[in-house]
Design brief:
Blueprint lengths: L1 H24 L8 E3 L3 E8 L3 E10 L7 E6 L4 E4 L10 E9 L5 E11 L5 E11 L3 H6 L1
Parallel strand pairs: 2-8
Antiparallel strand pairs: 1-3, 3-6, 4-7, 5-6, 7-8
């Protein structure tokens, strides 16, 4: 009985390792694929009223043209700029995000959702900051 149990265990392990190996060697799904260099950027501490911007770089690492159909933010305080033309396979491009901290306070995490024709249809990037009150010198100047 122990031999049968041991044999079943060995067969089960062998089957799992073959299945995992097959998974690794499968060809990636065809089509465009958006790959970001960085998916999050933290500005650290900024003062209320500051306008900061960051550029997210990405590549179409797929095998067909990539078209961004929409780039949407979670708040009107964040404005995205993105390419409207198709991005060829292997080509790099950028999405710029501008954040206006006027009226904001404390930790901010602004998520930007990118919708495209890529195999990974929706991707998200984010800009993070900690908005501090205006300094006294800036208040008296303004």
């Amino acid at each position: 009985m122990k031999k049968i149990s041991l044999l079943a265990l060995v067969l089960c392990i062998s089957f799992l390792s073959v299945a995992q190996e097959a998974e690794k060697t499968e060809a990636p799904q065809p089509g465009p694929y958006i790959s970001f260099v960085e998916k999050s950027h933290d500005f650290g501490d900024i003062e209320q009223g500051d306008i900061v911007e960051y550029t997210f770089e990405f590549e179409n690492s797929g095998d067909a043209p990539l078209v961004l159909s929409n780039v949407q933010t979670t708040c009107g305080c964040t404005t995205p700029y993105w390419p409207r033309d198709p991005i060829a396979p292997g080509e790099k491009s950028k999405i710029q995000a501008k954040f206006n901290s006027r009226g904001k306070m404390g930790r901010q995490n602004k998520v930007i959702t990118i919708t495209s024709n890529a195999v990974n249809k929706q991707e998200r990037v984010s800009i993070i900051s900690n908005v501090l009150p205006k300094s006294k010198t800036q208040e008296s100047e303004g």
